[in-house]
Amino acid sequence: MFTYIIRRLIGAVLMLAIVSMATFAIFFLVPRLAGATPESMASRYVGRTATEETAKLAAERLGFNDPLIVQYGRYVKGIVAGADYDYGAGVEQCPAPCLGYSFITRQPVFPDLMDRLPITLSLAIGAAVIWVLLGVGIGVLSALRRGTLFDRAAMVIALAGVSLPIFFTALLSLQFFSYGNPFAWAAQGGYYVTFNDSPVLWAYGLLLPWITLAFLFAAGYARLTRAGMLETMNEDYIRTARAKGLVERKVITKHGLRAALTPIITIFGLDFGLLIGGAVLTESAYSLNGLGKYAIDAITNQDLPKVMGVTLLAALFVILANLIVDLLYAVVDPRVRLS
Amino acid sequence: MTAPLDVPESAAQAAPEAVVAGADRKAIQGRSLGQIAWMRLKRDKVAMTGAGVIVFLILVAVFAPVLVAWFGHPPLEFHRDMIDQTTQIPKDRFGGISWEYPFGVDPVWGRDIFSRILYGARISLLIAFLATLLSVGIGTVLGVVAGYFGGWVDSLISRAMDVFLAFPLLVFAIALAGVVPDRAFGLTGDTLRVSLLIFIIGFFNWPYIGRIIRGQTLSLREREFIDASRSLGARGPYIIFRELLPNLMAPILIYSTLLIPTNILFEAALSFLGVGVRPPTPTWGGMLAEAARIYTVPHYAIFPGLAIFITVLAFNLFGDGLRDALDPRGSR
Amino acid sequence: MRRKPALGVSAVTVALAMGLAACGGTSTTPQSSGEPGQPAAADKADAALTGVFNPSTKKGGTIKMANSGDWDSLDPADTYYGYSWNFIRLYGRALTMFPGKPGAEGAKPVPDLAKELGKPSADFKTWTYTLRDGLKYEDGTPITSKDVAYGVARSFDRETFPNGPTYLNDLLDWPKDYKGPYKSKGADFSSAVETPDDKTVVFHLKQPFSGFDYLTQMSVTMPVPQAKDTGTKYQEHVISSGPYKFEKNEIGKGFTLVRNNQWDPATDPNRPALPERYEVSTNVNADDIDNRVISGDLHVAIEGTGVQPAALSKILPDPALKARTDNPTIQRLWYTSINPTVKPFDNKDCRIAIQYAADKTGYVAAYGGTTGGEIATHLLPPGIPGSQKIDLYPSPEGKGDLAKAKEHLAKCGHPNGFETNISYRAERDKEKKTAEGLKESLARVGINVTLKPYPLKDYFSLYAGKPSFVVKENLGLAINGWGSDWPDGYGFLQQMTDSRVIREGGGSSNLSVRIPEVDKMFDQVLQEADTAKREAIYAAIDKRVMEESVILPGIVAKSLLVRGKGLTNVLINDGQQMYDYVAMGIQ
After folding, report:
1. Do A89 and C233 touch (CB under 8 A)?
2. pLDDT at B96 over 80
3. Of C313, C361, C439, which has the smallest distance from its Cβ to B89's Cβ?
4. Rounded mean pLDDT of C154-175?
5. What does pTM read for this prediction?
């Protein structure tokens, strides 16, 4: 078990390295191939009134003159060992993991990301709670009442849920439940209060995004749970459990649901990991300043350290989520053993 | 990264394990499966409705120019007389919906939303279909290769899939769509943008299907009929093309149908975020993005939103039915 | 105008130009009708435009502001946004300032830190300012002339402070190889800014510059205590010299300002300093800001560029809401460059065909309708001295004259039209709409235009502003816009029409004007002492560019601003062209 985790962690680091290289290549190598010079790349970050000399100085400071390998090496070194940053009047230690400083605002990227993370995390966790409860609940009920009107209706609604683009639902929900409409009960777009400041307002601000996001995911989970339940309920061991006189509720929860949950956990890990990495669409539709919006803004501004940072963080979450899922797997499914 | 867990049970991670079961049954029932599945599908009214809508949408997309010529106004034609010049929104109530403009007109220019939706269908469906084809192509080839050959080939391909799955796709797609110049690979304009979107969407989605196919291949490889064929002296290519692929057709078909709606949403999202096909070419996502800016005119959001919804729903319903039909144990 | 950072300015030429243009800066906008201070508490459209809305001297209260984006920087050396120059006067004092007075008065520099306006030498090459007595920073330490000089010196380092204006960089006589106080530590820069004693600042210019007070009102002359200077991190806590200081500042989220009790009103006749606090949030959704200003939850949309399209369609039909708005005209021209380096625009008649074929009502529509701008037929916006109405290519209501357009097309050898491209900044929806509108109207005479969006960030440096790229990609038309840093014909025209600002490497906002005669006229202006004659030359340049038809003027910008509920002393002047934040108070 222990060696397994170690091995997986090493694998995770390798994958992060590949992800960072690919991101680096897209933003640093592709422009070069397209004919950008160090100065022309730097001129983006020195304002409109810059002279060519200023652009040269900036290219020097940002390290654009070095070969790409050196630039990449420096970036990795910053993450592992920290880096020094010259802020004009002096030099500042940027402690590891140093994801660099924004080319535009000159703020260190890592604290920025940590600042945005709670918003995205709040969004993802709240939505996840709703969608798992709702999805699994409806899925189980549907499976147990297979063929009834409830089942049919639930499954069609579920499919509808998967089929709605989140930016459309967000738009409509804001239109109908916010923006000072007569029956407005929800906060306006962009409303966010930290949990520490006021849990009530925190929930109030995020309720609409939670619901729309959960609606999208709950559907998939309901379908999955239903399929899983239907299948496991036909298994021999369920029949055995019933035969030995177990109460039906126990049969369902202890035997049926447990097996049906296995694929749910897998998918949940992936979904949740991806979501923390940036619920790009939800955040931009609701103007929440989380990691997803951060990523979009960073790309629009060509603020490369920010793009690198947010990509790496997102990848890290997916990888971690996968790891946790695999560990949980061993707990839930006795057939799986970690070697 | 999932190597120790890559037992067939968990192989089809992105998908329910029902498919594995489907393959089991198919092997037993042999060739009549296609007919049985078709019979089942025909009985599934919901799925057939989905299929009907899909056929309808394809026809609409193909004949959009004709339909627009008959019922609408060219998608790029301005009708500024329909627009209030101070507020720049349609003068009439409900966004100018009338017999002449069944879906109303868009703010500022007064373009016919009906014909823009029809033309938007062409872009959406074209990109979704071709991107799916690309994903399925890459996914199948790499999945089969990984599953069949195993060993380091499998490790390499599986790791590649893991890396892809770890990328924040949307972020990446936006970045990529932004850096590609105006003219590349001998293409320009809409052709280039459409090709680019197909490439981005297709290329980033292959690992999902790749994983499923790999899992299926893994389980099929160990089955008796493959063993039999191998013991009769069949070689790799023969086994792959004559024994494996036909048995993989069911999952390929099912996941293609289910990938199309995902890709439609993906394309819409990219257009929504402003990196899709360029204006003034109408796209559903692009129209929604404009509608988001002027949310006081709800009809402008509703029609493209519904268009996306109905299309995606139709594909999902059909794909769902198809899965049920090909995989009897899952439902009935 | 500093609404946006000046577009690809080759600063050397600007300063050179400014040096001789006795930059009077007097606005021709008629003196505001209402007497300043006249009561106007009832909501009335444009009330703050023509006078002072809801005048009051009551102190106290909190003004809440929001920004849909973020400051380029709060550092006085590093900011170039119009709203920032407006707002920075609350926490910083420069040598001179634009006072919070209505109309044209608000665009005339008055002494701030200085006792009086700058004293020039006879040749206008040396300017001397003497500081007032009793000036203190928020920590109680006295402000000296050394701090002003240091502030100017650090703003010289454009690599550290990339965003700020570069006028003083180019105009002052800096030591050779001087790189600012960080990179040239301890170097003597007295050849540029000299401080003979703690009260006196002397600027030494390379060329004569009679309008120097306009430059010293910019935030680069705000004092910075060297001991507290932390380079790029200084923006996290700017040491206040004005009536308010930072209480808390979270970059990317917002900040609060509270009274600076070390600020002595006796030293400052220009700032009423009415509110107790300012609460500013940044990166707030723009539609959200509009809704909250309308509902009263927020007082000011700080960018001052007008409401979003959604709010527009809500406000205009509602008389009660409309009464709370002001709709100032801004000295900014939205236009389209017609590039003569791209075929067939090398032919003048093909260029003129564009003037006649374009439907400018579409330009107005793209910018949100009549409250977003009015049709322009030439370059100089009406508020700028010397602006004369020129309309060489008249058409009914600006909708175009297709017969004339076809006539010119025939003359240039393309009777059935031709193909070309139009570039715009992808992130700007209004420019996208402009391009769509032009495409439609040009198609009426067979000119088929393809839309080419490019990223805003690189628009001038890599794409539309780079001559070789323009030719390679056949960008016949390029959507563009320009406003100068203060109301003056030279500042407005030179950057957009002097061919010598075009750089092969890209970065200039003059994309299409290469007329030797115009260049000569600019040289002539530099030698001209008489204001009236200079203004006549500006009009001549305007006309000459229109004759060559290398610019299609679109609209002169207007913005629709909403007055927050409960605000007092609300006014718009020529200096800010939005609500003046120094004058404003709250009930």
Report:
1. yes
2. no
3. C313
4. 87
5. 0.83
Q: Is C557 helix (H, G, I), strand (E, B) or coil?
A: strand
Q: Among the CATH numbers 1.10.260.40, 2.30.38.10, 3.30.1060.10, 1.10.3720.10, which is that of B41-326?
A: 1.10.3720.10
Model pLDDT for residues C524-567, shown as the tens digit of each residue: 877 776 778 888 999 999 999 999 999 999 999 999 999 999 99
Minimal CA separation from A64 to chain C, in Å = 15
Q: Which long-range contacts (CB under 8 A, 24 or more apart) does B148-156 make?
A: B148/B217, B148/B221, B148/B236, B148/B239, B148/B240, B148/B244, B150/B218, B154/B214, B155/B3
Q: What is the pLDDT of residues C407-457, one digit of tens each?
A: 999 999 999 999 999 999 888 889 999 999 999 999 999 999 999 888 887
- Residue B7: exposed, middle, or buried by beta-carbon count in 10 A (0-12, 13-18, 19+)? middle
Whether the CA torsion A47, A51, A56, A60 is positive or negative: it is negative
Q: How many residues does chain B have?
A: 332
Answer whether C70's CB lies under 8 Å from A297's CB: no
Instruction: Decide if A319 and B1 are in contact by the 8 Å CB cutoff.
Output: yes
pLDDT in tens, A284-324: 888 888 888 888 888 878 888 888 898 888 888 888 888 88
DSSP H helices in B167-283: 169-179, 189-221, 224-231, 236-238, 245-272
Burial of C469 (0-12, 13-18, 19+ CB in 10 A): middle
Structure tokens at B210: 């790749």
Any chains having at least 3 CB pairs less than 8 A from chain B are: A, C
Q: Which residue of A has its CA nearest to B266?
A: A165
Q: Do B294 and C365 touch (CB under 8 A)?
A: no
Alpha-carbon distance A197 to A179, whole Å?
24
φ, ψ for residue B66, nearest 5 deg: -65, -45
pLDDT at A270: 77
Rounded to whole angstroms, the Cα distance separating C143 from C226 reads 11
* Whether B86 and C473 lie within 8 Å, measured CB to CB: no
**Chains with 3 or more CB pairs under 8 A to chain C:** A, B
Statement: residue A180 has pLDDT above 50: yes
CA-based nearest residue in chain C for residue A31: C462
**Interface probe, candidates B10, B290, B329, chain A, greatest A C-beta count within 10 A:** B10
* Token pair of C189 as six digits: 């820069």
pLDDT band at A184 (very low <50, low <70, confident <90, very high): low
